[in-house]
Amino acid sequence: METLNGSEIQREILLNPNESCWGGYLFDLCAYSKTLFKVAIERSFPQLQGLPVSVQPCSQNFKADYQCQSALSIFPLVKSQPGAPKSPQEVAELLIEHFPSVSAVSDIGLTGPGFINITFSPDFLCKLMDNIYRNGAVFPKPSHKKRIVIDFSSPNIAKQMHVGHLRSTIIGDTLSRVFEYLGHEVFRLNHVGDWGTQFGMLICHLEDKFPDFATESPAIGDLQVFYQESKKRFDEDEGFRKRAYKGVVTLQNGDPTVTRAWKLICDVSRAEFQRIYDKLDINIEEKGESFYQQFMPSMVQYLESKGLLTIENGRKLMYCMEGKPPLTVQKSDGGFTYDTSDLAALRYRLIDMKADWVLYVVDAGQSLHFELIFEAAKLAGILDPTKHRVEHVAFGVVHDASGKKFKTRSGETVKLQDLLDKAVQHAATIAEEKRAESHEPGSSDVSGKHEVIAYSAIKYADLKNRRTADYSFSFERMMSLKGDTAARLLYSYARIVSISKKAGEFLSGRPPLEKLYHPSEIKLIKQTLRFPEVVRAIEKDLMPHGLCSFLYNLSDTFNIFYRDCKCVEVQEGTVIKVNINRLTLCDAVAIIFRQCFYLLGLKTVDSM
Ligand code: ARG
Predict the structure, then answer these.
(1) Secondary structure of the chain: what % helix, strand, coil (to 5)?
(2) Ligand 1 centre and the CA of 340: distance in Å?
(3) Beta strand 66-68 with 55-57: parallel, antiparallel or unpaired?
(4) Which end of the chain is more exposed for a tag (fewer CB within 10 A), N or C?
(5) Ligand 1 center–CA 220 separation, angstroms
(6) Distance (Å, whole) CA 103 – CA 522
(7) Atom of ligand 1 nearest to the CA of 363
């Protein structure tokens, strides 16, 4: 290892981090390891710039903490240089020789075909844990604060929200929470479907059945039934169908009576959606398709003026990708479509809202739609890929427990409301069974607890899967205390909290955390300290499941620690001895647990 020269004082601070350097913020060990290797690479090959730096965390059962695999990719780039290393191993040896000497790193070694492993010193790691205990889990302010639009949930008015919208709601909410946590400005937008063909038929049906709807409140409380009636007429009655199509255009042209009818229908639907958002603790702002009507005519004109539209049978189309169908920007009757509203919405978000990122959390079935919209926006000069990040955050289908598409027995899509109610019932039944088994009296505040457990179970069961994969929905599985479930995580957390509770009187005036050397302590510390890099990864890949597996591993490592390391000794109900360092460790771990729960939208319970 080599020491630093005078001109590198600035960097030295970075290389030997201390309290004044992390300033109470979370410290990202993976990013730090990368910095160290970057320095080693630059020093080993001062004449070459931009050599690749790739550093990854070692898998859990590895002896070391982070591994650098750059030697393998650097070797072919340098081997023709005079006096160059003759193998990837030799490159790795050179990197080790030039690796900055920092007290934080206690071990460095070469393994395999040229991998370099580093290990952090327990004292250094204790300092980082102590920092979490004292200052909480706070990220440093981002150097480039982003304006991020997240388009999620987005159900359709007059139709029920279904499990697809549930996925969008859960994933979108977690991504929003993560970006807010990282210090970005997030706009959570509900792009509800409130402007399409279904409104023509709904409004015509309303006009026929409740001509006095403006003065008398009509019985459309069950919008679903109302929708089905109007759909039946639409399918069977040619005259009605024609009127319905006209109705949409009249609505889009701002006719006051039709607009009043439309508003009434939206209000009924909105109240239904809100009930679900309240249950799931979702905060979202409605900016539906209709909001963008004001920009649609000029949008079409603009595309026309740029010569991007083709007219076919009176329809204005935009062909934007070879071999792919065109977007329908305006129908022959003058009406606008889903395509028009999405183009107008994207323009509004990028230009008027000045968003840096626009993310669409929508099922994978709509991939082509978004591919075309993004391409069209590029052609129209609205989206600049060098400036904007615009992505379809696609997700897979939900199957039932037997692997078939999620449907009720009669073949309809499952209503979200019913699904949530069933989950709460399920949680209550399980609790009742447990209570009967243990012969304990039931607690008084059970209903709130069942809801917490049920909704947490549903959210976690969704988030833990790789977003793009399909998954199957099973109440039994998601609520089990065994396996990778919210119930189990909440249980682990309740256990950590109970340790602190037991040791109540030792809670204040803790000395700095130090001297933790038991392998189960070290494992727990190292797992906890991976939190910053796991959250950062979501910024890149938009995949929340990484956070779930992190938390699951954390709970596992905690349980092993709990088994191996006594924190508090109790005799006849009184605490007789406390290991204060372990207590501080538990409290720091609890902070990370809570933060993860928050990001995943799970609420905690103090006992199960
Ligand atoms: N309402 C649509 C649906 O239920 C989803 C809308 C997604 N967002 C968007 N900007 N297209 O399928």
Answers:
(1) 55, 15, 35
(2) 13
(3) antiparallel
(4) N
(5) 24
(6) 17
(7) 12
Pairing of strands 310-312, 471-472: unpaired
Question: Looking at residue 219, what is its pLDDT?
Answer: 66
pLDDT tens digit sequence for 265-302: 899 889 989 999 999 999 999 999 999 999 999 999 99
Q: Compute the mean pLDDT over every residue in the chain, rounded to the nearest whole number.
A: 89
Nearest-CA residue for atom 9 of ligand 1 = 191
CA of 145 to the centre of ligand 1 (A): 27
What domains can be seen in the chain, in order of their start residue?
6-120 (3.30.1360.70), 196-282 (no CATH)
pLDDT in the model for residue 477: 87
The C-alpha atoms of residue 380 and residue 300 are separated, in whole angstroms, by 11
Which of 339, 362, 391, 395, when mutated, tests ligand 1's pocket best, judged by the most ligand atoms within 8 Å of its CB?
362
Residues having CB closer than 6 A to ligand 1 are 151, 154-156, 191, 193, 342, 345, 360, 362
The CA 192 to ligand 1 mean position distance, Å, reads 7
Distance 120 CA to ligand 1 centre (A): 47
Tokens matching residue 361: 């959390």
Ligand 1, from 197, 366, 367, 395: best to mutate by most atoms within 8 Å of Cβ? 366
Please state the atom number of ligand 1 nearest to the C-alpha of residue 338: 11
Q: Which residue has the higher pLDDT, 8 or 286?
A: 286
Query: Distance between CA atoms of 252 and 292, rounded to whole angstroms?
Result: 11
| Residues 547 and 599 sit within 8 Å (Cβ to Cβ) | yes
- Tell me the per-residue pLDDT of 193-238, one tens digit each, with 9 for 90 and over: 999 888 899 999 988 988 887 777 676 667 788 888 999 999 999 9
Atom of ligand 1 nearest to the CA of 362: 7
pLDDT surpassing 70 at residue 603 = yes
Reported pTM: 0.93
Q: How confident is the model at residue 358 (pLDDT cuts 50, 70, 90)?
A: very high
**Would you call 460 helix, strand, or coil by DSSP?**
helix
pLDDT given at position 6: 37
242 alpha carbon – ligand 1 mean position (Å): 26
Write 412-418 long-range contacts (CB < 8 A, 24+). Answer: 413/160, 413/162, 413/163, 414/162, 414/163, 415/160, 415/161, 415/162, 416/160, 416/161, 416/162, 416/163, 416/165, 416/166, 416/276, 417/160, 417/161, 417/272, 417/275, 417/276
